[in-house]
């Protein structure tokens, strides 16, 4: 029996398919946007060149190169550029950093975004923005930053290096897994998250054998889309809050931090939601969710410990004592294991 729940669907249009970069200009036209500012990560310069040509006289300006975590000075420069060229819309091509910069502009100037993701971070499906100033990251939720159209083209991620791919998949899997136990979790989000996890795990296994396989890359983008949707509706829980603290305070890389922390938080939290745990285990092809995630990441060659990312044991202990959202002993247990990279066997409380 399905119990009572409340689920919010976010508006947005998804155009999915290898080669769909060619549809970006038509989507801009459909939105009625006349002067576009293109924001592109350096690795997507070629794609941005294509879009620039296809936009014809709707192209108004371009920002090449983005910085992780949207530093305020970078956001201010982008807003100034949007003002200067009188942009009435944005195209973001790249990973979470490029989409994050476009969101920072959309937040203050209320401009529609067409997002073209080239990693699996999933930001394109969420109304969440973030900006970093003086070493601390502020995040918020605002429908103004939710991209109006998302164009997924697997060709653009065909040459994403395997290490970046695997870490980005860990980020996307974190969205799927945590979405089943947050206070806002519901059956619709759970189904989205389980299907996302299935596509991500299958895509990662395949892409390790053949990094440019377009079906595997498509599977990963599909999983990223579902993971982002799950994050948007379920919000964040213990796992994301811990990663946020670690990333913000000790400047740890975003996606890799997820890979080290997720199996350890899963070991603690998944037993609270046995039905969802079983569904995710089936999706990943494992008989224990926490160890299944750990092994998936380790097999893909990503670090499953925080010490490799540069965190000291004292800092892990300090982070546990600083964290406010859960009992100290529980957080210490998670971070001690995540720091050392202990395989999460014996997943009971
Ligand atoms: P990123 O955008 O910095 O990209 C990671 C690296 O991959 C970069 O060096 C980039 O140049 C490279 N790259 C990207 N696409 C490539 C391609 N196709 N080929 C080769 N190289 C490529 O990092 P990310 O992990 O995508 O995103 C992380 C950021 O996104 C963080 O700031 C995080 O907070 C944010 N984020 C936000 C949300 C949200 O809902 N707001 C969700 C997830 C992540």
From TrEMBL:
Keywords: NAD, Oxidoreductase. Residues 165-321 form the Fe-containing alcohol dehydrogenase-like C-terminal domain. The keyword Plastid does not apply. GO terms for molecular function: alcohol dehydrogenase (NAD+) activity; maleylacetate reductase activity; metal ion binding. InterPro entries: ADH_Fe/GldA, ADH_Fe_C, Alcohol_dehydrogenase_Fe, MAR. Residues 11-153 form the Alcohol dehydrogenase iron-type/glycerol dehydrogenase GldA domain. SUPFAM superfamilies: Dehydroquinate synthase-like. It holds the Pfam family ADH_Fe_C. Coiled coil: none annotated. Belongs to the iron-containing alcohol dehydrogenase family. PANTHER family: ALCOHOL DEHYDROGENASE, ALCOHOL DEHYDROGENASE 4. This is Maleylacetate reductase.
């Amino acid at each position: 029996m399905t119990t009572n729940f409340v689920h919010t669907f976010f508006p947005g249009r998804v155009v999915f398919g290898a080669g769909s970069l060619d549809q970006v200009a038509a989507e801009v036209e459909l939105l009625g946007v006349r002067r576009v500012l293109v924001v592109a990560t350096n690795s997507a310069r070629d794609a941005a060149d294509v879009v620039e040509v296809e936009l014809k006289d709707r192209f108004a300006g371009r920002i090449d190169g983005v910085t992780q975590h949207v530093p305020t000075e970078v956001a201010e420069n982008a807003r100034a550029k949007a003002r200067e060229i009188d942009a009435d819309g944005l195209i973001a091509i790249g990973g979470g950093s490029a989409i994050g910069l476009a969101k920072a502009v959309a937040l203050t100037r209320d401009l529609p975004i067409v997002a073209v993701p080239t990693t699996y971070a999933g930001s394109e499906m969420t109304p969440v923005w973030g900006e970093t100033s003086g070493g601390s990251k502020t995040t918020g939720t605002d429908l103004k930053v939710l991209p109006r159209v998302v164009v997924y083209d697997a060709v653009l991620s065909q040459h994403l290096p395997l290490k970046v791919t695997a870490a980005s998949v860990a980020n996307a899997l974190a969205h799927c897994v945590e979405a089943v136990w947050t206070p806002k979790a519901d059956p619709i989000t759970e189904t989205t998250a389980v299907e996302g996890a299935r596509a991500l795990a299958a895509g990662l296994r395949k892409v390790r054998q053949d990094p440019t396989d377009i079906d595997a890359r498509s599977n990963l983008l599909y999983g990223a889309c579902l993971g982002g949707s799950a994050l948007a509706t379920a919000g964040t829980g213990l796992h994301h809050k811990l990663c946020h603290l670690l990333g913000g305070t000790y400047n740890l890389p975003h996606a890799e931090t997820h890979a080290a922390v997720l199996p350890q938080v899963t070991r603690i939290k998944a037993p609270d939601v046995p039905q969802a745990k079983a569904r995710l285990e089936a999706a990943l092809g494992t008989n224990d969710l926490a160890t299944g995630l750990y092994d998936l990441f380790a097999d893909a060659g990503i670090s499953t410990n925080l010490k490799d990312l540069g965190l000291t044991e004292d800092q892990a202990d300090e982070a546990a004592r600083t964290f406010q959202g859960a009992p100290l002993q529980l957080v210490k247990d998670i971070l001690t294991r995540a720091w050392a990279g202990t395989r999460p066997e014996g997943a009971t409380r």
